[in-house]
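Sequence design from tokenized structure. All designs in this work follow the same two-part layout: the structure record, then the generated sequence. An example of the structure record is given first.
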């Protein structure tokens, strides 16, 4: 298994952090403690199973734990990024936030919010409890500095009201500070699209801090429109929410489809920009949920390098067609506007013949206001 370790205040990677893997309180035979390089650690090969514990410590930081780590058979497990709190910020902190419906961005009242110490602390002791108010807001005060698993559960069940999956997120308490977070929670029945054909929700982990939604489709001039943070509207489609400080959600709504071509949704790692080698997007645990009258279709980011994830298309009949490929903006030249001839150079798709493809060149690195 492997993962990244960051300073929870400066957001910079931590070099020299010690990572220890144990099970039932004992080190695994044949494994050794690891030290992060460029913030990255990778453990020795371990047997497939669950219930592993990661202990992470670094000079000048409060030690952390990741509980209940599972390792699939024959696979490398990507552990979510861990933020350490500097000892200069030890003491009591506060975690505040707003719980929102991931489909329509409305607030969710009457949710019980439980705070459990450490990451992925399922079934552990609850140290603080709060209730979301009528504005979906919650406050958890008096939390010792460190990572907490927040559990959200619906406290009121009535017929014909929207119900939600129980939801868990990781949040950081920093001594003497207030950590603010927005929590998108996915409903599982009675989803109201408000007359729209599609609603697209992008969520991810706390690293990287800025992923961007991109939607392209046919315009009225035999070309392509492109919706993103700098151009959030086009006839029948819009970017409802652009998140710039981690986890999302970003939300795109399509009220109706323009004739004359396919729609395509992509996710871009804004911070990694023009890099030609990056696995930050793959490690983001990004997920895209697509809601329509036909139900819910979900996509998880592939475990491949790249800064641009082409997620799916919508054909002229309104069918969601998976694409799920990774690439680099410097190779692709832009968001792909329609199926084109492609070749492979390693794992990264590149243009083979720009004349016979219809990539729509865009400028990714527009500065954000």
């Amino acid at each position: 298994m492997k993962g990244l370790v960051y300073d929870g205040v400066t957001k910079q990677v931590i070099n020299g952090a010690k990572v220890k893997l144990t099970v039932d309180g004992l080190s695994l035979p044949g494994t050794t403690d690891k030290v992060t390089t460029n913030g990255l650690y990778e453990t020795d090969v371990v047997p497939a199973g669950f219930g592993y514990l990661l202990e992470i410590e670094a000079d000048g930081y409060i030690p952390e734990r990741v509980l209940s780590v599972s390792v699939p058979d024959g696979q490398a497990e990507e552990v979510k990024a861990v933020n350490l709190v500097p000892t200069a910020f030890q003491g009591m902190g506060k975690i505040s936030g707003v719980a929102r419906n991931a489909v329509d961005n409305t607030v969710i009242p009457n949710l019980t919010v439980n705070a459990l110490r450490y990451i992925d602390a399922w079934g552990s002791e609850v140290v603080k409890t709060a209730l979301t108010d009528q504005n979906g807001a919650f406050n958890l005060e008096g939390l010792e500095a460190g990572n907490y698993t927040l559990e959200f559960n619906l406290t009121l069940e009535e017929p014909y009201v929207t119900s939600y999956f129980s939801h868990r997120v990781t949040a950081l308490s920093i001594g003497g500070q207030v950590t603010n977070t927005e929590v998108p929670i996915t409903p599982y029945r009675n989803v109201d699209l408000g007359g729209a054909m599609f609603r697209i929700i992008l969520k991810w982990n706390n690293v990287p801090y800025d992923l961007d939604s991109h939607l392209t489709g046919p315009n009225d001039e035999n070309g392509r429109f492109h919706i993103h943070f700098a151009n959030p509207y086009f006839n029948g489609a819009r970017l409802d929410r652009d998140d710039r400080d981690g986890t999302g959600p970003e939300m795109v709504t399509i009220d109706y489809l323009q004739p004359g071509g396919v729609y395509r949704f992509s996710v871009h790692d804004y911070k990694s920009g023009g890099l030609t080698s990056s696995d930050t997007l793959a490690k983001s645990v990004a997920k895209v949920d697509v809601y329509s009258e036909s139900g819910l279709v979900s996509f998880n980011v592939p475990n491949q390098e790249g800064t641009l994830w082409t997620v799916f298309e919508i054909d002229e009949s309104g069918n969601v067609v998976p694409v799920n490929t990774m690439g680099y903006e410097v190779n692709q030249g832009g968001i792909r506007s329609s199926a084109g001839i492609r070749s492979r150079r390693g794992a990264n798709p590149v243009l083979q013949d720009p004349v016979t493809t219809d990539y729509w060149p865009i400028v990714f690195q527009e500065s954000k206001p």
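Helices lie at 329-332. We note this feature because it recurs in several other targets discussed in the main text.
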